[in-house]
Amino acid sequence: MVGRRVLVDTMVIIETHRTGCWRALASRYAVETVETCFDETQTGAQKRRPEQRIDPAQLRASLAAVHTVTDAERASLYVRDYAASNLDAGERDLWTHAAACNDAWVLSGPDTASLRFGVRLGLRDRLIALETLLSDIGHRPREPLRRNYTRAWHAETVARIAAEEARGPA
After folding, report:
1. What is the pLDDT of residue 1?
2. Residue 145, CA atoms < 13 Å, CB-side half-sphere
3. Where residue 78 sits, what CATH number does that domain have?
């Protein structure tokens, strides 16, 4: 593994497998996730096409780390910002882990609630589009990325969220 530390949510893991770029991502970055996201990659696997199924042993071996999050750590995140309650379980645990990290990392995940939470925490500069990560290593997916994984969608969405958060509650 080379490159920076990248925290990914379930949807990024699934999208990179769908587009055939997981190996490129995981071999060029220190890709990490949390147990909850790891488990979510197996939910609904039987409904995916065979080439989109994710082998759990191979996935775990390709990740730099899979972190366990405790109830006490989750409680700490809720104390910091109760908006964590708007996140699904995987994103909540990924943000719980990320918020406790003191070193350099970026987080990739296309969910708007997760992006909003990152902006609320003042971590906008740590949010990154999957397309940007792949472009930075010179990789083009064999299948086009869905729109919410693109650099343009990410920039537009994060800018809109930041403006909304700056205005405050309606």
Report:
1. 46
2. 27
3. 3.40.50.1010
